[in-house]
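Posting this for the archive.
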Amino acid sequence: MEVIREKDIVRIRGIEGFSPAEYASSVHGSQARILEGIGEPLSYDDLICYSGFAFRVGISDRMCPSAAHPCCGYQCVRGSTNAIPWRLDLYERLPWEDAKDDPEVFRAKVNRAVAASIDRGIPVLYGGEEDGLIVGYADGGERWRCLHPYHKWGGEEFWHDEAEGFAGGSWPWAVVIWREPKPESELLSDGVLLENALRQAVDMWTAPKQEDQYLCGDSAYSFWLDWLAGVDSGAVGDPRSGMQGNGWCYDVLIHSRGIAGRWLGWKAEELGGEAGRHLHLAAEHYDELAGVLSEGIEDAWSLALPPQKFDEWTTVMRRDQTERLKRARNHDRDAISAIQGALELI
């Protein structure tokens, strides 16, 4: 990647942003863009699947949209981080935790690390509730030039201190520096990464509630279906407040299972034999699941409407979504059964 210096501004040329429509997971989307930029072949699909996120269905018992984030509930980041062939340095300052060191000293250290990474032509991942990329800096690293999926849909660079919302305006929860390639001894084989992801997929199907609100796997379907029924029966007191979570989780489920289907199909071909046959079966169920959820609709939000369209959200729509989720649940259950069969043979 080419590093451009213009007066006090240093930036990396040629890094493209992305929108939530392209990459629903901003964590993995940001990782994928860095990998593309430095010429590593690991793709967004690889990251989503090695992390387990492609196989997770999550819902919050408060119907919070955060349930569709890989870092909320059952964690779906470690596997993708393990797959990345670079050593990463994490600088974390979570707003709900007490600072471990002087804030000004911490910020100065991070700013120096960001500037050094940009000077080497390596973008920096940053974020809080959603992640983006630092692709340039000014004032010795104190100002950051960024791309973020929630700032103009990732289509335009901006100064972090001039943005707001998910994209910037306040100090991020985390900054991740890609320091150097991992030595051979730290690299995990594709076989190990695949087996870890498949075991995680199975574990998530029956996992207990996480962080006092996040349900996963079969229990997530149970709560989601009960919530939709409760909206119609009147048991849900404030259905409008759950519509954003309903729509985003539905959107991400379509996105994730579409990726799971094609990726497991590739892995089944590579694996071959009886284990490969089981993975092919799982891939078919995931493909069919994505089709069931998306068939005949423009996108997820045209069925699972956002809260500003509360008055247009009908019982017919909710029953349609309910029937689709019931069929999706059956495909998910059968896919997990097929994955268990593959694991017995790997």
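The chain has a mean pLDDT of 97. The chain has nine helices and ten strands.
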